[in-house]
Amino acid sequence: MRLPRDPSLVRWGDFDADGGYLHGRELLSRPDRPTAIFAGSDYQALGVMRAARELGLRIPEDLSVVGYDNLSISRWFDPAITTVNQPLREMAALATQMLLTLSDGGVPASTRVELGTELVVRSSTAPPATP
Question: InterPro entries given for it (predicted)?
Answer without folding.
Answer: LacI/GalR-like_sensor (IPR046335), Peripla_BP_I (IPR028082)
